[in-house]
């Protein structure tokens, strides 16, 4: 991700969604995955994070906006966060401090009563404020 605003430092909010067309439910890591429920994680980091539960413990998405508050939420180790992201110079497409790597991890439903064999779409919305 890159902040391409005209000089505005941004913070981000992030949310997931239920799947479409079968409406699998997005769940927290505390309650899912389970039947027709998946867990989707998102985190800022400069390189691919490991696929280890502890690494992603505070990074599970919900269907409502969550602030990327700069503590442990949506960051692997705090080196990249969704807080105080500086603007990139307009027209400058070289990597800068405004760049953030965004990584996703999914735990799919443990069993299905709907949508078996059907591709699902999950929308992730990131809002700058």
Secondary-structure map:
Blueprint: E1 12-15, E2 25-26, E3 37-44, E4 66-67, E5 102-107, E6 125-128
Parallel strand pairs: 2-3
Antiparallel strand pairs: 1-4, 1-6, 3-5
Shape: elongated
Helix-strand string: EEEEEE
Radius of gyration: 16 Å
Distance between the termini: 15 Å
Could you give a short description of this structure?
With 129 residues, this protein is an all-beta fold. 0% of the residues lie in helices and 20% in strands. Strands 4-1-6 form a 3-stranded antiparallel beta sheet, with no helix packed on it. A 3-stranded mixed beta sheet has the order 2-3-5, with no helix packed on it.
Q: What can you see in these coordinates?
A:
The protein is mostly beta strands. It has one domain (about 1-115). The protein contains no helices and six strands. A three-stranded antiparallel sheet has the order 4-1-6, with no helix packed on it. It has a three-stranded mixed sheet with strand order 2-3-5, with no helix packed on it. It is elongated and about 50 Å long.
What are the defining features of this structure?
6 strands; 3-stranded mixed beta sheet; mainly beta; elongated; 0% helix; single chain; 3-stranded antiparallel beta sheet; 129 residues
